[in-house]
Description:
By secondary structure, this protein is of the alpha+beta class. The chain has five helices and five strands. The protein has helices at 12-15, 19-27, 78-83, 87-105, 109-125; strands spanning 2-4, 32-36, 39-44, 52-60, 68-75.
Amino acid sequence: MREYKMRRGxxxxxxxxxxEAFIEEYFGAITGTxxxxxxxxxxxxDPDNPAFDRVVAGTVEYGSKKDKLALDIEERPAEEVIAEGxxxxxxxxxxxKNDFLEEATGRDAKARRDSxxxxxxxxxxxxxxx
Length: 130
């Protein structure tokens, strides 16, 4: 499960007031929920895009800190999807994921990558046995 933070000065609930409808718009009908970090996330067991096997997404609340978007997508192997004749679906899968994340967080793929790099670098500077 990956968590994505918002652009500076923005809040997830302002950008996505109805998370359930937002997830359904991008991935398909929600079939249930799953607990993650004391939060109920939405599960799409049969996503609209055949390149995805399962999608889990939603808002992770942190009380005093800003909420984050949690997303976990189980993807099928691209070769398998293409062999079934879903070439466009394989291409659309990347766009769907990036569009979903950009609309929700206000951050494009480059900004998200840079942020992840910084968090990994910050973790590397922290001593293990403190």
